[in-house]
Automatic annotation (TrEMBL):
Binding site for substrate: 238-241, 261-264
Listed name of the protein: Isoaspartyl peptidase
UniProt keyword annotations, A-Z: Autocatalytic cleavage, Hydrolase, Protease
Gene3D superfamilies for the chain: (Glycosyl)asparaginase
Alphabetical GO biological process terms: proteolysis
PANTHER family for this protein: L-ASPARAGINASE, N(4)-(BETA-N-ACETYLGLUCOSAMINYL)-L-ASPARAGINASE
Organism for this UniProt entry: Chitinophaga niabensis
Amino acid sequence: MRKLLLFLLVLLIGACKNTQQRNMGNYVLVIHGGAGTILKKNMTPEKEARYKAGLEEALKKGYAVLEAGGTSLDAVEATIRILEDNPLFNAGKGAVFTHDGRNELDAAIMDGKTLGAGSVAGVRTIKNPITLARAVMEKSEHVMMVGNGAEQFAAEVGVEIVDTSYFRTEERWQGLQNALKEDSIKAKLDHSFLTPQKAGTINHDNKFGTVGCVALDHNGNLAAGTSTGGMTNKKYGRVGDAPIIGAGTYANNKTVAVSCTGWGEFYIRSVVAHDLSALMEYKGLSVQVAGKTVIKKVGDLGGDGGLIALDKDGNMAMPFNTEGMYRGAVTKDGKIEILIYKE
């Protein structure tokens, strides 16, 4: 009897290990739609369903690209375009307003195979900024373009341009009005040096709506992309981490693809996306441990937010230090996972 029990125990342990192995290295695409104070008690069932549907549509789009043999870059761009076109998210159509009542858009994309990268910041007429970021990478000798110059380049290379009114949504406009009425404590993020102690008292934007995607294709190539409308009531042409390579966006076939969302100033100062890759490359940390490490660094400085990361072997991580983060992933066999709250 004792030998039989021991034999059964060995079988059980082996089965558990096999299950873990099947669950590891199984992801091909991961997305986020922003992190912040996202509480189930504040979410109506209808709105939660809309967010989940939006995330699912984006995941299915990216997965279809990969299944058809598309590159990780193709999948990242296609996925983020879906999120940019969805007014629920703070990117593209749903971008928040600046203090001056404008929509200013930022985006970046990076190729893990070549370390090629492209980004744009402060554009106002580009329907899908992620597409322009890719054009900067592939059709220019530069990495980053901003403002009017980026829009001039867009016109020259045929990237779709729209009137500024396209980006206006009533919900975002009311968000700006509320911020102005409150004397916009949040806007101080853009022109005041905040110690970690002071930062912790700021009642800043309830939700960072940056969107992002990381992907791994059939050829083993990684790519990352991020797109955002910035921070409600921002001033002085402030730019966050999303379009800054190594801060909010990074991809390297040797290690990992990363897209961040959160309080951008802290992600820039911590060079979060590249730091995660470096921890994996130089210290041999797993993507999960490296992800938790860099988010802790952000928190220790007084910032908050989260990130998504997908390593070269298909292991993924979604760490965050806020109440929630819109996030989802799809496995290589097409299984979709969508999460919103701390779970």
